[in-house]
Specification:
Layout (H helix, E strand, L loop, with lengths): L3 E3 L3 H10 L2 E4 L5 H4 L13 E4 L9 E4 L2 E5 L4 H6 L5 H8 L4 H4 L4 H7 L5 H8 L3 E6 L2 E6 H4 E3 L2 E2 L6 E8 L5 E7 L10 E10 L2 E10 L6 E2 L1 H7 L4 H18 L10 H20 L4
The chain binds flavin-adenine dinucleotide (FAD).
The site of flavin-adenine dinucleotide has 29 residues, from strand 2, helix 2, helix 6 and strand 10.
């Protein structure tokens, strides 16, 4: 391992990133495992290591006219307990890892890890979240959907860090989170589903469906959402099977140690079918 830098302020962190080639460590719950060494030895980092968990100015969650801001050093457990956190994100966090891991893991760590099974990424893209990326060159914003480009591939320059995640204001009647795992606690997703909709009388005013663990990254279909928007619930009732099949084509599940491709495809289709059938009856 190279040098170890413990940043106490955002400017210390971005100056270190500009100067050295660093691995950022927030909670460490992903990266420490990736860099683990043989039993009893310290993790093996090839680069310098920048610890950011002590940056107090990023330890905040607040709302302004832009929406909800969650700072990079808020832990998942703090976010879960925070009164401003949307219920759909709380539902996701309740099932993420375990209390002890949630006490140090963070939201930016989950998205920057860019695992297809990263749970909070599904909620990020459902809510059109954007990331504030900061470096000594300045600030830029990128949507959560564009930030993750593939498995372990992210749109983050070497000198940037995620300062905060911003959830714009939204207006839905209902938001849903659903995770399929081997068991309730400490279980990595075989499949994750989040959805939101707003009705205008008997019509769908707006709708979003997001999926995790069924593609190389969390995914939504803006095309299918546009097709559904404006549709009457009666028409939806007669087209549930058609849209279930269409969503089946959007996703491209993988075989891995947790599940098979065909299981993931069938379960996704069952979830979409149930969700649309309930919605066609007026939701609940
Ligand atoms: C037993 C166990 C169970 C788990 N269960 C789940 C689960 O159910 N669902 C799930 O989604 N995940 C799960 N995880 C994975 C992990 O806990 C989460 O992904 C967590 O949110 C990672 O956050 P962290 O702060 O610990 O990230 P770290 O390990 O510190 O970092 C992860 C990556 O993000 C980068 N990074 C961190 N912060 C920033 C930042 N501010 N700016 C730029 N880059 C940054 C790091 O450089 C690294 O590449 C589990 C892990 C364990 C060990």
């Amino acid at each position: 391992m190279g040098q170890k830098i413990i940043a106490r302020t955002l400017s210390e962190a971005i100056e270190a990133l500009a100067k050295y080639d660093c691995n950022i460590v927030a909670g460490g719950s992903d990266i420490m495992l990736q860099k683990r060494n043989t039993a009893g030895e310290l993790p093996r980092f090839e680069k310098d290591v920048l610890f950011i968990a002590n940056i107090e100015e990023l330890h905040k969650e607040y709302v302004d006219e832009e929406g909800l801001h969650i700072g990079a050093t808020m832990t998942l457990e703090e976010i879960l307990r925070h009164e401003l956190t949307p219920n759909v994100l709380k539902d996701c966090l309740k099932e993420l890892a375990s209390v002890n891991i949630r006490h140090f893991a963070t939201l930016p760590g989950n998205i920057a890890n860019a695992s297809p099974a990263g749970d909070t990424i599904v909620v990020d893209i459902l809510l059109d979240a954007k990331l504030k990326l900061t470096s000594i060159r300045g600030v830029r914003y990128v949507s959560a959907e564009d930030f993750v480009q593939g498995v372990r591939k992210i749109d983050l320059a070497k000198d940037e860090l995620i300062e905060e995640i911003i959830f714009p204001k939204y207006d839905f009647d209902k938001l849903i989170w659903f995770k399929v795992g081997s068991r309730k606690a400490e279980s990595i997703s075989k499949l994750a589903f989040a959805a939101a909709y707003k009705l205008d009388g008997e019509k769908i005013a707006s709708i979003r469906l997001a999926f995790g663990s069924v593609f190389m990254k969390a995914i939504r279909s803006h095309e299918l959402e546009k097709e559904l928007e404006g549709m009457s619930l009666k028409e939806l009732g007669s087209r549930v099977e058609e849209f279930t099949e269409k969503y089946g084509k959007v996703i491209s599940p993988i075989d891995d140690q947790r599940s098979t491709k065909s299981y993931r495809l069938e379960v996704t289709k069952n979830i979409v079918r149930d969700f649309l059938t309930t919605l066609a009856k007026g939701g609940n």
